[in-house]
Amino acid sequence: MNSLDSWLEHCERIHPHNIDMGLDRVRTVAERMSLQLDCPVFTVAGTNGKGSTCAMLEACLLQAGYRTGVYTSPHLVHFQERCRIHGETVDPEQLLPHFECVEQARLGTGPADAVSLTYFEFTTLAILSLMSASNLEVAILEVGLGGRLDAVNVLDADCAVITSIDLDHMDWLGADRESIGREKAGIMRTGRPVIVSDPMPPQSVLDHALEIGADVWTLGRDFNFTGDKQQWGWAGRGRRYGGLAYPALRGANQLVNASGVLAALEAMRSRIPVTAQAVRNGLAMVELPGRFQIVPGQPALVLDVAHNPHAVAALSENLDAMGFYPTTHAVFGAMADKDLAPMLARVGALVDRWYFCDLPTPRAASAEQLHRQWQAIQQRPDVRAGTYTDPQSALEAAVAAADPTDRIVVFGSFFTVGGVLKNGTPRLDAPHLSS
Fold first, then answer.
1. Among 79, 171, 185, 385, which residue's Cβ finds the most Cβ atoms within 10 Å?
2. CATH classification (class only), 4-285
3. Which tens digit of pLDDT belongs to each residue from 178-227?
4. pLDDT in tens, 152-179
5. Where in the chain is the domain with CATH 3.90.190.20?
6. Nearest to residue 201, comparing CAs of 262, 122, 260?
7. Cα–Cα distance between 319 and 312 in angstroms, integer?
8. What's the topology of domain 293-434?
């Protein structure tokens, strides 16, 4: 195995399941590797807002001059997007020796020692190994699924951040917000700060913080924000910011995420001080593809990885706030295990033409399945829909049908948005798309 692709293919073969909750296997291999990060660690869990929170933390810490390492998942186009060192996506070749290191530790000294790791567990350990060798001054780790039993949780968080909690991955995390919150709360550590940026957190999160003696910061009690159309302000324990420009990431929900970021930086100020100017610059310059990303050109193009009802509700509010468009075209692909009906219903009032697409993963719902789900709840006879074999062909069909004054929204799975970004960010007024 001498390429990243060959290692990833290997990772897909060695365990019978994509998801196998538990830390025993990954902890065994991590201990064999003597894996540790010799710097402060932020661990971020939640249903929505994790990626934005990680990106804003990274941007502010970079502006403050720290050497950062970030691990997020999943990726949009290329696997190596999951790891950034000092603000730059790592090269695939940098990862190869760390995949080898995980493999040697996984195999142990003989067949009886071998440990079976899932794709996510193996790749997480490889990226954490790279980060441990990168002379970091601060690490930011995004939880993949849940928290308590996620591979990232094999390392202790110096500061935990829990973003919005809603219903998603219920087959693994539980059927209600309280159960899901209990899983997310597993990233907390005794005596260390945990920032809860969900305005209405499940009681299970607060109870667990009290039970283990974590230093819990909650929105509305320990920190808060205010804002008007021009600027916003933040106040926390002993520190205030006024006259802040809105974060460069679009969407009303980003103020909640940014407030949690400022609380996390404040909670860690004694170890990694960050100036007010670094905060202002970081929030103004942060970038994250696929989070209510508006691409310049005509027609308007919006890319959003909203893939559960809570995220689609936020997307719908953000689309509403964009103003009037004669026709809105929606390219949509999603996993089969998602709660599809409320997602389609919530955004349905804003969509005039649907372009359902297949995705290149067995977990995905087919375009035909999505179309049938939509037909079952559709109440507007004027709305049309079609099915396509991939996101790119769905987007091209939308572009061909759209007028310059229309709007196209590409949303759903990371595979959906990644499918239209694989050849770079599309420009809808470019000749190959407008011909």
1. 185
2. alpha beta
3. 888 998 999 999 999 999 999 999 999 999 999 999 999 999 999 999 98
4. 999 999 999 999 888 655 565 656 888 8
5. 293-434
6. 260
7. 10
8. Protein-Tyrosine Phosphatase; Chain A (3.90.190)
